[in-house]
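If you are new to this repository, start here. Below is one unmodified record pulled from the training split, so you can see the exact layout before writing a loader.
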Amino acid sequence: MKVIHTISSLKCTLNDERNSGKSIGLVPTMGALHAGHIALVERCVAENDICVVSIFVNPTQFNDKNDLLKYPRTLEADYELLKAAGCSIAFTPDVNEIYPEPDTRVFNFGSLEQVMEGAFRPGHFNGVAQIVSKLFDMVQPDKAYFGEKDFQQLAIICEMTKQLQLSTIIVPCPIVREEDGLAMSSRNTRLNISERESAAKISEILFKSRSFAGRTPIAELKQQIIQIIDEVPSLRTEYFEIVDGKTLQPLSDWKDSDYIVGCIAVFCGEVRLIDNINFTPKSPKGDLERL
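And here is the target side for that same chain:
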């Protein structure tokens, strides 16, 4: 595995590979890698001749400076995981390499960015679009791999790719979960023992809520889920929305869409966690009171 720190070296290396007819895949990350990231890397390795993994904690997508400072950084451990997964190139630039000058570009994603994460993290998706578009320009990947845990981000990146008329194929990859169901996240390492136990309740409650899809009014189910989660020690719901999986717009009736997703953000102590679940109208009956 090559470790590359500069854009010029990256482009030179990839041009040689591309000129020899090799396909190139990209997995953009902010490091602190876990099994969820490695699942993306392994798929990229399997589907491309060259797998590039970027590790860059992008400052323009953090609207909370403390969150940026506290974001875990484990570069040496990340290298070992990438080597074991078969990564070809680890691209680890510093901030000045990526932003020699401020990126003043402003993207417009319309209603996709006005709900959920976009509403609670102003400017976040503009920062995401800035860094991902830069990485796409540097790497020019045939395919790029993103986890479905960041469901709204995935929709934004697909829209950005369309707007910029890029040829890169966006490959969504399923959420990877811990044994107790918690969606894997670099932020999980910041949870203490009791918080970690509480955090597992998020996915447990979401899974059980599927039994109410199509038979409990959406507004009522949303209220129940929020109430149940907020009763768990250390948990506080920031939002829970049931949306159309394509437009991301909130739904008021199960009949309004054939692709329905529940998206949630929860604070566990000081750590903000997100998750989502695909609802289907026809599910076995369940009982939220048993959670």
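Two things worth knowing about this chain: Confidence is low (pLDDT under 50) at residues 282-286. The longest helix spans residues 193-209.
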